[in-house]
Amino acid sequence: MAREIRLNAFVMNCVAHQSPGLWTHPRDRSSDYNRLPYWLDLARILERGRFDGMFLADVLGTYDVFGGSPDAALRNAAQVPVNDPMMLISAMAAVTQNLGFGVTCTLSYEPPFPFARRMSTLDHLTEGRIGWNIVTGYLNSAAKGMGKSGQTAHDARYDVADEYMEVVYKLWEGSWDDDAVLRDRARGIFTDPAKVHRVHHDSDDYKVDGIHLSEPSPQRTPVLYQAGTSPRGREFAARHAECVFMSGPSAKVIGPRVAAIRALAPKYGRKPSDILMFSMMTVILGKTQQEAEAKHAEYRRHVSHEGALTLMSGWTGVDFSGLALDQKVEHVQNEAGRSAMDNVTRADPDRVWTVREVAEHVGIGGAGPVVVGTPQSVADAIEQWVAQTDVDGLNLCYTVTPECFEDVSDLLVPELTARGLYKKTYQPGTLREKLFGAGHARLDATHIADTFRHKG
């Protein structure tokens, strides 16, 4: 039986997310990012296409590596201005019934105690459709904005993240028993205090002494996404993540990353299939190949190469403004993200990238492949991609929005469905049940979170 392909819409509460410059296209609505109607319409379109989720990216800093200032990012709206993604979710949940919401929140700059409450609140209000993309940050500008002199070292950020997860597991999984809330009107007792447990945690990084402020939500712990594929990031993913998001320009890059994480899962008592893999892709669709190629050419005329190199500079920590366009991109290791630099240096030994090629590639869809064609040819390409990489699904970037997501919902989804590669209806239940099946509303006992559940 063919594997069912899962789809997320990869978006951000900003203008230019992964395709800088396309906000200038006359049909693009992304400059309305700060108005609710834009997001409500998008949520309805995605649910019409039976998307599994909306994957909301976020950063807390500006892309100021290019040219040593935020000017290029500001000129091109390259992920700035950027608003809080969590504020959107309740409104979108109110106009949908099944669409999941994976929200990126950086754990490096917020205590776990109030964060755990906000996620529990969203899990209640969405009736169990919330996920958390766990990130530690990669922009020095974010660290400085939060009062630090600079970022913590790359691998050390993951060490802190492991402890952060321990604290939120204690709050989400261990503080309240399932039957703590009585709602007993006759006796006037809402909660049985004996079934609510104080969380104690004391270390140099985190100190907590209190009960979780929210009663158990449908999922307790939100669906856990993670997006790092460095060696230390893979260890973190194998230990904690239920869904891993990765980006790369080719199957040669993505395939080994998928295999590496799956191979690590048994180390943490998990099956390789316990972790769903999503890779980034951009699709441009037309009813004919000619129509699709014309649309692609039209989109490319709006690409901002400066915006693309601004993003790449932020992702890698390397200032591309001082490099000649035909210069070969050399590998540099620093405390920024690791995967983006690997993508254009050593991940694919058969490919050498120039700065010009990086700008062209990143200009539409960021670091992922771009597939242009009819619903039939794009479906063929997706099938091949899944076979070559072993991914479970795709995070689809936007080009011109919401046009590109309307095309996926109305053109590509029917083709995938007809091939038996896509669900005909949503699975009932929470986001975790929609992804992993009935009976999986909460994390399985094989997950490390189980060790923090109260079992007295």
Can you walk through the features of this model?
With 456 residues, the protein is of the alpha/beta class. It is globular and about 70 Å long. The longest helix has 21 residues, at 154-174. An eight-stranded parallel barrel has the order 1-2-3-4-9-10-11-13, surrounded by seven helices. Helix content is 37%, strand content 15%. The model has no long low-confidence stretch (mean pLDDT 92). The protein has a single domain (6-295, 368-452), classed as Luciferase-like domain (TIM Barrel, Alpha-Beta Barrel), CATH 3.20.20.30. It has helices at residues 36-48, 71-76, 86-94, 112-125, 140-145, 154-174, 231-240, 251-264, 289-300, 305-316, 339-343, 355-362, 375-389, 403-418, 431-436; strands at 6-12, 53-57, 100-106, 130-135, 181-184, 189-191, 199-202, 207-210, 223-226, 243-246, 276-285, 370-373, 393-397.
Could you give the topology of this structure?
Layout: E1 6-12, H1 36-48, E2 53-57, H2 71-76, H3 86-94, E3 100-106, H4 112-125, E4 130-135, H5 140-145, H6 154-174, E5 181-184, E6 189-191, E7 199-202, E8 207-210, E9 223-226, H7 231-240, E10 243-246, H8 251-264, E11 276-285, H9 289-300, H10 305-316, H11 339-343, H12 355-362, E12 370-373, H13 375-389, E13 393-397, H14 403-418, H15 431-436
Helix pairs in contact: 1-3, 1-14, 4-6, 6-7, 7-8, 10-12, 13-14
